Amino acid sequence: MALLGKLDQLVTELGFRQYTGMTTNMLNMVLFTMSLMIGTAGLPHVIVRFFTVPKVADARASAGWALVFIALLYTVAPAVGAMARLNLTTTFWPNAVAGQAFDGEAITVDAIANDPQYNWINNWAKTGLLKFEDKNGDGQIQYYNDKNADVAAIATAKGWTGNELTTVNNDIMVLANPEIAHLPGWVIALVAAGGLAAALSTAAGLLLAIASAISHDVIKGALNPNISEKGELLAARIAMAVAIGVATYLGLHPPGFAAQTVALAFGIAAASIFPALMMGIFSKRINNVGAVWGMLSGLIFTLVYIFIYKGWFFFPGTNQLPDNVDNWVLGISPLSIGAVGALVNFGVAYAISMSSKEPPQEIQELIEGIRVPKGAGAATAH
Length: 382
Hints:
382 residues; 4 strands
């Protein structure tokens, strides 16, 4: 039986929604996927990497390999999620088979305490990210959706008093999955090392982009052109320190679990940077005024929509509307709004650029030179 087919039957038998079923609507899913794709293209720490290579050919090779690994990431991540959910379900229902999970024997408290194959449960329970409680004292830990009326009725007849796997933090599943599947320790170490390396690399790239944007582009380029190199360096350090402070707060009080937080970041990149990048490449008519107003419009639109549901600047309790599908505009989640923000960005940038003067001739020649490098010559037939 296919893994996803078995998983769907198991989780629905336990009263949860079908794993592969639509959670909101098709429009939201399309926008969510688009936000991730164009958000990846607009991430500043990805863009600046191309400035570190000595030749155009190296930049193209780097971009090609980046696309390969990004495609692998977005392809494999859903598979890992499905495997983690199946592993978790069958761990707490060791005898579960498709269609019989709810009537099987649940994992025992004694097995959790003494069986080495369940060490991962105790390991993660120590962190507080996974919690369980034998509420009815029957020596087993029943894992099911006690809010599902049909399943709750069956559970009550069996003498169960509620779901006894009380906490499963979504963020632990990637690291716990190899341990649940009893893979060697070095595999777990590779997963942890890869996650840490990715986090540090991303943080370093983003801090560099933030510091240079504030000190060089904003302060030196617009506010104070005569600032010394020492002052510019000081401004970069201050901007970096503020960014670290904001990141630390959001790390301690995240607006969602890891995947949601990443989706929000990618949505903001999609709504702000990606349209300006694309229009700068494919249109010589887009000017600096249009690009700036387009980026501001897309960014403000996206942030306001997110803050309405997630809280202003992500402070708890400051949201105007509950974050659920019944309150979302046209069923569009805050995680997916980045794609709509990108459309706002495109529209505003185009309208303002068309109604204002063209970019200087040297800028247009620069764009043309990027498209067809000087000395390249005309294309030849083979």
